[in-house]
Amino acid sequence: MQEKVSKQKVDFSKGPVWKCIIAQAIPLTVAQLVQLLYNVVDRIYIGHMGDGNSLALTGVGLTFPIVALVMAFSGLFGIGGVPLFSIERGSGNNEKAGRIMGNSFCLLLLASVVLTVVGYTFSRPILFAFGASEDSYVYANEYLRIYLIGTVFSMITTGMNGYINAQGFPRIGMLSTALGAIANIVLDPIFIFGFDMGVSGAALATIISQAISAIWVLHFLFGKKALIPLRRDNLCIDKEVTKETVKLGTSNFIMSGTNCLVQIVCNSTLQTYGGDIYVGIMTVASSVREIFSLPVTGIVNGAQPVVSFNYGAKEYVRVKKGINFNTLVGSIYTLVAWIVVVLFPKVWFDIFSDDVQMVDVGVTMLKIYFFGFVFMAFQFSGQSTFQALGDAKHSIFFSLLRKAIIVVPLTLILPRVGFGVAGVFMAEPISNVIGGLACFITMRMTVYKKIVREIKG
Asked: How far is Cα 428 from Cα 213, in angstroms, rounded to an integer?
């Protein structure tokens, strides 16, 4: 009886689809919220350090592109393999699923070493290219040189945690990040204020927390509770598996990589047209956006293994229901979130800074930045569907469209044609509308139609 119950818990072809998605999404959302706390808590404490707090916040904000780049490689080699893993598990091919997971782990280790070395070697030119001034560089470099030590822990946690969720253990996946984030929340004030370490204390608290999360992830995946454990004989880099993983992971890589590119272009443009204070305002605006994006990303990420599993099992009716549920819930949530931010912008800005000048100017910029947030639901729904069904071509294209093709050019053009710094903040909502609708409509006209045809036989 116990074996039967356990099997049902991880069989995504049983029970209402929405319940399967919610069962995955709730702990995933909590896990992502906790993951976000790693950096957000740092920003909150740093933004309230006292004299010079806005400059310190600006300095930490300059490291965001590097953090995004680390996440990009985590997505490329880690998250990129999860849909393949889920499809193979749904098809009953556990041996190949195990090879996919082991391959991802090795790629993540290799990438973390390379990124750490490159980061230390070129930290100064990189930060100035990202929009640092002589004043803000001091804080950015202080934070970055400690943060880079934890690259391997961050990549293992982010890249491998998806394999826990894909096996039907979202609560374990939630704990992976919860343990680290709780440690970060506790250690931040101790190191920043108690030991008077400032920005360095925030970075040290973060890497200790990431190490705790990484240890938890590996303990589970190498342990006996995993349905498909991470075995030593699967710890090798396979050319064909890598090719397929990178093909799907490229979408995640481009999404994070283009986030990195956008942050670089935004910070350097803001430095030119507004100075350090506007780079700090973008740091806050990005942080608020990350917080409000969490629930909808939790839903689509929770749906992804469910949709992939049922696609592999040829349960096409359930695939269709999963896609529709994503779209409906995401649209309702993003609309409510948009209204909340527009009505109460100062409340969210005050969380990150007590600099009166920054808050006064930043409230207006935050309203501009969040305009049309509801259209992000369509981007998330379309993008996650392409990834879940293994449609790498469309997934990659729409990752590039919204950020690289729309946001970056607009960020460079709008300030130069009369909009000034406001033009930088306007680029995001314009891309939400154009990119979100294009992605969703294409998804409905391609893979969704294919699913409908399969249902009709």
From this structure: 32
